[in-house]
Amino acid sequence: MAHKKVISRLPQMASPWVREIELMCAHVTDGIIASGNFYWGVLASRRFYYISQEVLVDESLKDAEVLAAVQNPGQCGSEQAGFTADDRGRVYIAASEQNAIYYVDTLESETNMTVNGSAPGGSGLIPPNDYVVKTLVRNAMIQHADSMAILDGWLYFNTNQLTLGPGFQYNNTDKRRGPFRSFRLWIGRGPAV
Fold first, then answer.
1. Over the stretch 109-151, which tens digit does the pLDDT of each residue have?
2. What is the pLDDT of residues 168-190, one digit of tens each?
3. What is the gyration radius of the CA atoms in the chain, in angstroms?
4. Are 74 and 91 in contact (CB under 8 A)?
5. What element of type H or E holds 135?
6. So what's the pLDDT on residue 67?
7. Is residue 166 part of a domain?
8. Which residue segment(s) compose the domain that 46 sits in?
9. Domain CATH for 97
10. What average pLDDT is seen over the chain?
């Protein structure tokens, strides 16, 4: 029962601020449950959001309370085509516009820089206003990264060349060319549990 209620809440929660984004979120979002939070982004936006899994499954909360719990860390500098996370609180973002994979550390113990006066290290979650988006890898061969997974210390992802398809090209020309690729990158971490 709780599962149906959670799924029905997701499209409504994506953006209470702009009606157009609300409609888009009902159909075009990517997300993953990671490190105790559910992260998602709107495909036509550079913003991403998250909410605690505990809030999502708490059936006693009203929709307004759930909406109030949505966190907006801001822009990540690219449209997102998916998320995954590792066992040390790092969230990976498929940065499709930039042919890159970005990441955000969400645990204070994993940071190595001072942000808004907060020194590196510590314990607990990083406040959303202190998130720092960093580039893990960027390369022209990463054409619209999508569908990521972590296994045995490797981050796997594929490219789908979406923006080279006929719908995005002049005269509906199909510029997608094989071989279509999947990549792996050593991160030395396990998947989120």
1. 888 888 888 888 888 888 888 889 999 999 988 888 888 899 9
2. 888 888 888 777 788 999 999 99
3. 17
4. no
5. strand 134-138
6. 87
7. yes
8. 2-186
9. 2.120.10.30
10. 79
Element housing 143 (H / E)? none
Predicted local distance difference test score (pLDDT) of residue 34: 61
How many other C-beta atoms are found inside a 10 Å radius of the C-beta of residue 2? 10
One-letter amino acid for residue 124 of the chain: G
Distance, CA of 79 to CA of 138 (rounded, Å): 14
Question: Which residues, 6 or more positions from 68, have their beta carbon under 8 angstroms from its beta carbon?
Answer: none
Q: How many structural domains does the chain have?
A: 1
Q: What is the pLDDT of residues 46-104, one digit of tens each?
A: 888 888 888 988 999 998 898 889 888 878 777 777 888 999 989 998 888 888 999 99
Tokens encoding 115? 């942000």
For 6, the enclosing helix (H) or strand (E) is helix 2-13
- Half-sphere exposure (CA, 13 Å, Cβ side) for 165? 8
Q: How is residue 131 written in tokens? A: 């998130």
CA angle centred on 168, ends 162 and 170, rounded to 5°: 140
Task: Report whether 96 contacts 145 (CB < 8 A).
Answer: yes
Q: How far apart are CA 52 and CA 35, in angstroms?
A: 9
pTM, to two decimals: 0.78
